[in-house]
Write a structure and sequence with these properties.
Pfam families: CCP_MauG (PF03150). The chain is mostly helical and 470 residues long. The protein is built from 12 helices and 8 strands. The chain has a two-stranded antiparallel sheet with strand order 1-2. A two-stranded antiparallel ribbon has the order 3-4. The protein has a two-stranded antiparallel sheet with strand order 5-6. The structure holds heme C (2 copies).
Length: 470
């Protein structure tokens, strides 16, 4: 079994136990369909019996047999027709399903609706294009948004696929899947966005809607847009007749609907890649893909699988190609970004400035959440600051960062300024495991031919594979 050994070896403050690595974590559901108390405002103050706690059940049969753990869903669905008619009673399973279906359909329409934005021109799908696993169709380093559609962002757009597996953020993560040893501290892990600063899809959706450089909207504008939208009636049906009279309740229901849409299994975690078919014994990999897989897994070569898990979990669930650890890999500064025109500005990930709760905690500086590599071949921009635009370039970085640093970092007066996007006082946070364990003079981790093989393997992680296309 692949093990990441001492991922946090330079970060002893995270560890009380000798790290035995973390091999697997799967099917963790974060974007829980929490059609819960946060929506109580949406039923217009209708008295309602508080229902007993949530139950675990599959929302969709599509979950079963695909390894995704069943979605957690509350039996009480505020804002449902039952609640809005003022009949205080619990809900049947069928009613819960119906409400999830309504919210999914609404969330989908909102996801594609530019009228929710301040400019009227930008929807979630502008940056999260469904044809590209919900990443941008263009190859810009960062996207341009804002009320005037001229404001550049500061981070590359991540995929929205497979987020159901991201655990809530924890400073000290103890993986119950980890060889049964929950005493292993895997370090900071989980949370949504590159720095893990929110745990729920609804809280996350608030960020782009209100961001001055993304959708630049307000709860009022969003509520006005919903009132005028073709789905206004469906919205009232789902959340109650009075919901549109209350701007805050409307905004919350919008966020919840987007979260619910993002949990549609067949859209967001279909597990239909060639690699999934290969794991299921339904196809074979080409020689190049197999060599790439080998290099990806080899602890003395790429050691990629120590963070980007490639094997099934013990319970048989499919690999997510991330353990969701927050890690510093020393990505070079992207000098093309507007924020980086200020030489004093650093995007330090978990310690800020976008994330604020861990500010001043030096051990979190430079850490970004390990992204899934599923569908990575559909992406046009890589790493949190969007500095690279081909998988070959990303692989060259992994293979040669330490053997040939001058190829990635500025050279000033003959000296390489390594790790130029992370102030020196945080360098102890940088990962030092393979492939980051070499020095100048050593052979690079991969040859050019090996890079091609690993890229061929990464191509097997794209969803929608069909035997006939092979
Ligand atoms: C202007 C481009 C843009 C728009 C529009 C946009 N996003 Fe994003 N999205 C991003 C970027 C950039 C990030 C990473 C943010 C960060 O790390 O701070 C992100 C992150 C996310 C994440 C977390 C992904 C992860 O890996 O944890 C989710 C979920 C998400 N967006 C959903 C949405 C939804 C829903 C909308 C519409 C309400 C939306 N986005 C609109 C650019 C955009
Ligand atoms: C120690 C953990 C770790 C190891 C080992 C590791 N990665 Fe990563 N990987 C990360 C993190 C963290 C990021 C995001 C870094 C950032 O943007 O600052 C990342 C980003 C990536 C990306 C860009 C994805 C995107 O959506 O932008 C690719 C591709 C990738 N890794 C492939 C690999 C391959 C191939 C290997 C083996 C050669 C590997 N990784 C080894 C943690 C790791």
């Amino acid at each position: 079994m692949l093990q990441r050994l001492a991922r946090q070896s330079t970060q002893t403050q995270f560890q009380t136990h000798a790290p035995a690595g973390r091999s697997s974590r799967y099917g963790r559901l974060l974007l829980v369909v929490g059609v819960l108390a946060s929506l109580t405002a949406c039923d217009g103050g209708t008295p309602r019996t508080e229902n007993t706690g949530g139950v675990d059940q599959g929302v969709s049969g599509a979950n079963e047999g695909r390894g995704a753990k069943p979605m957690k869903i509350a039996m009480s669905v505020p804002g449902s027709t039952a609640a809005s008619t003022g009949q205080p009673h619990g809900q049947s399973r069928a009613e819960v399903y119906a409400q999830v279906r309504r919210m999914t359909a609404l969330g989908k329409q909102m996801f594609f609706d530019p009228s929710l934005s301040g400019s009227g021109k930008m929807s979630c799908a502008t940056c999260h294009n469904p044809d590209r696993a919900f990443t941008p169709a263009n190859a810009l380093d960062v996207q341009i948004g804002g009320a005037d559609m001229h404001r550049p962002g500061m981070r590359a757009v991540p995929t929205l696929r497979y987020l159901q597996a991201v655990p809530p953020f924890a400073e000290h993560y103890h993986d119950s899947d980890d060889e049964g040893d929950e005493s292993v501290d895997a370090g900071p892990t989980g949370g949504l966005t590159w720095d893990g600063r929110v745990d729920r899809g609804a809280d996350q959706a608030r960020i782009p809607l209100l961001s001055s450089f993304e959708m630049a909207s307000t709860p009022r504008k969003v509520a006005d847009a919903v009132r005028a939208a073709p789905y206004a009636n469906a919205f009232r049906e789902a959340f109650g007749e009075q919901v549109l009279d209350d701007e805050e309740a409307t905004f919350k229901a919008v966020l919840k609907s987007l979260e619910t849409f993002e949990q549609t299994p067949e859209v967001f975690y279909p597990y239909t890649s060639k690699y999934d078919a290969y794991l299921a014994g339904r196809t074979t990999l080409t020689a190049a893909e197999l060599r790439g897989l080998q290099l990806f897994n080899d602890e003395t070569k790429g050691n990629c699988a120590s963070c980007h898990i490639s094997q099934r979990a013990k319970d048989g669930s499919p690999p997510q190609f991330s353990d969701f650890g927050l890690i510093a890999v020393g990505v070079p500064r992207n000098r093309a970004l507007a924020v980086n025109r200020d030489p004093r500005f650093f995007d330090l990930g978990a310690c800020g400035p976008e994330r604020t709760d861990l500010g001043g905690r030096a051990e979190f500086c430079g850490l970004f959440r390990t992204p899934t590599l599923r569908n990575v071949a559909l992406k046009k921009t890589f790493f949190h600051n969007g500095i690279y635009h081909s998988l070959e370039d990303v692989m060259r970085f992994y293979a040669r960062r330490d053997t040939n640093p001058d190829e990635f970092y500025p050279v000033v007066k003959g000296k390489v300024k390594k790790f130029d996007d992370l102030p020196r006082q945080y360098w102890a946070n940088l990962n030092t495991e393979a492939p980051f364990d070499r020095k100048p003079g050593d052979a690079p981790v991969f040859t050019d031919a090996e890079i091609k093989d690993v890229v061929a393997f990464l191509g097997t992680l794209t969803d929608g594979w069909q035997p006939s296309a092979h």
